[in-house]
Amino acid sequence: MLRKKAFSEITVTDIVREADVARASYYRNFDSKEQIIEAAMDDLRDQLLGDVDYDDDEQIFDRENARAGFEKAQRSLPEK
Questions:
Q1: Which helix (H) or strand (E) holds 49?
Q2: Using CA atoms, how far apart are residues 24 and 14, in angstroms rounded to an integer?
């Protein structure tokens, strides 16, 4: 959906139509469209950080820097 419209132009109607869910289901789970982005970022972060394998002796991935990067990106989202 973000490839077709700017985030600011996307409405709740667009989201529920694309997701094929009832508006009531949307509002049962989210207060705003920003919360959907936050939830998606949380899920992505957890998946990425949870799936990373590295040898403690030869650390090829800095988990704390990655977490800080995701948190910075999350803070840059528009306010509700």
A1: helix 33-50
A2: 14
Per-residue pLDDT of the chain (80 residues; tens, 9 = 90+): 888 889 899 999 999 999 999 999 999 999 999 998 888 888 887 777 765 555 555 555 666 777 777 777 777 666 65
Structure-token pair, residue 16: 């529920």
Q: How far apart are CA 64 and CA 6, in angstroms?
A: 31
Return phi, psi of residue 28, to 5°. Answer: -70, -30
CB 14 within 8 A of CB 1: yes
